[in-house]
Please model this.
Amino acid sequence: MGALYMGNKPIIKVDSKVCIVMEQMIRLLHDCGLPMEDVDFINCDGKTMNKLLLEANPRMTLFTGSSKVADKLAVDLKGRIKLEDAGFDWKILGPDVQEVDYVAWVCDQDAYACSGQKCSAQSILFMHENWSASSLLRQMNDLAARRKLHDLTIGPVLTIGLSPRKHILAKMVTVAVSGVDDIGKQCMGLQHEEMLEHMNKLLQISGSKLLFGGEALENHSIPPIYGAIKPTAVFVPLEEILKDNNYELVTREIFGPFQIITDYKNDQLPMVLDALERMHAHLSAAVVSNDSLFLQEVIGKSVNGTTYAGLRARTTGAPQNHWFGPAGDPRGAGIGTPEAIKLVWSCHREIIYDVGPLPQHWETPPSS
Model:
């Protein structure tokens, strides 16, 4: 839509497994009055789309997908690309425990609404030890247990990818203008056995434990190419997360109902900040606290495209007038705000008019 707002005609290419989602969206737009010639929709494999992009030489491409393919396209298109990247999105609960019911509900929504298939979904929760002593985890467990397949409060993971890099990305609607999804198994739908295998690797880390979930959904006819697991949370000790041989595994983004939970003490906040800094993509984050000094410490030493701060902070559910996009990469694409749309779908232009008239009796001035 940002492309259309700026007067561009987009070509849309999405993941072949879920292209029906975008097709129905376009049909809805046509029904609402969008001229049929304003958007082109293409279904093809990744290699074909890559060839089309090279031959078409587009002025701009917005890509949402694997970081591996994004890096390839950045070279192929000579930098004429913006990336609406994903991130391993974090939430920190500060030392001031209050409104536990509300915070637990927001954590459940951030991690498991839409079956966790949101690039802003809560991937890891750092809770101060004061929260560990509260009823937070019990309430999160109870809220997760309410989610059922019959009312779609939990459901199949339509697309998911396990990347060899520090982040993983796959989406229901993967590309806003044009993109490539031919990256082998990285964008294949993960069977629930594979997601559970990832969980089991995490549980091999010293001190780790399953907090809740960790089982496949039952009594359904979901095709095996799609994942189907219960909302899952795995606790991993902070000291273990920071170890080089564990960090990449722990911060691997699962585009589904899956999160990591850990806790920290007052003197361990620098360790938490170190864990945040080492993450690959800095998209969305939340600092849940009304302690202004704590907020200042965390916000001042972390970087994200969008950070919500305060007791009601969340990672997901941003209204459309908020900026949404990654930080730390000049290719980062923002969505939502007029500024973000102009940044992605236009370029800076400046026209200076200087038409006179000249003063009467103008003479050539001396050399200067």
